[in-house]
Design goal:
This protein is α/β, with parallel strands linked by helices and about 375 residues long. It contains 14 helices and 13 strands.
């Protein structure tokens, strides 16, 4: 076949993610309903109660509101920013790609601080941009060296800088003072601050107040906050010109009517989010305590998810999967000795600990 896509697409490597791999489960003869999933870092409480009845009578024969106006007004009231400074996306991943489409071209430079979410690199590669990497070291606790970051920005003048905060998968969180220093060094670069997991960070600083007058694009995920992964929901916050640029490349009707209605309902569930934060904190503390007692090294994290050093992450994941428990193998992040765990309720966390004890026993017996 002589017809070929652009060279960037032919060479494109798809990013790996947590969650269920339905083809893998089919091969193993497992049903998705059998698994306990600790690999996805969404709210473990599930969607807010009542959300299904709220969306039951949605008029799916009509096109959705392409501007998601009611949802943007709800977010505006909650966040204290103007509706015109908000763009709704079909998950934050769509917004990442829209930003790359709007601001990156062939041979532009984009900066990525690693290890981090793989979709930043995919979006850059789709557009043919070259990547400047700052690789954080495990021996330094994956802590950001802000002086090194500023040096790289000054040397390479990237058009776009991606920052995940709290970072996925490490859970490290950049404080406001450090971020201000980075933003000041960025100059004319577009800084994309991905706060997909911000709702689970205790004492997080308020970033939406910074978008006015800065080349700053905030990304957030209602998928993670309210367990709406099947509906795909994210939003961007930025100044007028940046949001206008994203709107120009955004497909019409990109967020379906059911997702919009569910999100409008979810925004009113403040008590649900408070309970969820308590639940994940309790689950995380329990798991870190128990896994540390088993001799496993749990890395510090300011998010609810955390890394665990297990030796061979791919093997460890497969052993747990056979026990119908799923964790995130972090090999795709360049961390082949680590898994990432996102806590669930205490009952399920206890099942995970019991399964890990079995895995450790099996490994000792096999050795």
């Amino acid at each position: 076949m002589s017809l070929q896509p652009r060279p960037e697409i032919r060479a494109l490597k798809i990013s790996e993610h947590g969650g269920l791999d339905y083809s893998e489960l089919e091969t193993l003869g497992l049903s998705p309903n059998e698994l306990i999933d600790f690999s996805v870092s969404s709210n473990p409480n599930g969607p807010p109660p009542g959300i299904m009845s709220k969306t039951r009578d949605v008029k799916i024969a009509r096109y959705p509101d392409s501007g998601a106006n009611e949802l943007r007004r709800g977010l505006s009231q909650k966040l204290g920013v103007q509706p015109r400074n908000i763009l709704i996306g079909s998950g934050s991943t769509e917004l990442i790609r829209l930003a790359a489409l709007a601001y990156l071209g062939k041979d532009d430079r984009a900066m990525i601080i690693e290890p981090t979410f793989g979709e930043y690199e995919v979006a850059c590669n789709i557009m043919g941009a070259s990547i400047v990497r700052q690789r954080l070291a495990e021996e330094d606790g994956f802590t950001l060296d802000i002086n090194k970051t500023r040096e790289l920005i000054q040397r390479h003048s990237p058009r776009v800088i991606f920052i995940c905060n709290p970072n996925n998968p490490t859970g490290n969180y950049i404080g406001q003072e450090e971020f201000n220093r980075l933003l000041a060094a960025a100059g004319d670069s577009l800084v994309i601050l991905d706060e997909a997991y911000i709702v689970f960070v205790e004492h997080a600083w308020f970033s939406p107040a910074m978008v006015e007058g800065n080349n700053l694009l905030l990304l957030r995920s209602m998928t993670k906050d309210y367990t709406l992964a099947g509906l795909r929901l994210g939003y961007a916050i930025a100044g007028d010109e940046i949001i206008d640029s994203l709107r120009r490349v955004c497909p019409p009707w990109n967020v379906n009517t059911v997702a919009q209605e569910a999100a409008i309902f979810a925004l009113q569930q403040d008590e649900f989010l408070k309970r969820s934060r308590v639940m994940v904190a309790r689950g995380k503390n329990y798991l870190v305590r128990q896994l540390t007692r088993l001799g496993l090294r749990c890395l510090p994290s300011e998010a609810h998810y955390f890394l665990v050093e297990v030796g061979d992450a791919a093997d460890f994941r497969q052993r747990l999967l056979k026990k119908k428990i799923l964790v995130r193998d972090c090999t795709s992040f360049g961390l082949p000795r680590h898994i990432r765990i996102a806590p669930r309720g205490l009952k399920l966390c206890r099942q995970l600990v019991a399964a890990i004890k079995e895995v450790e026993r099996e490994k000792r017996n096999a050795g």
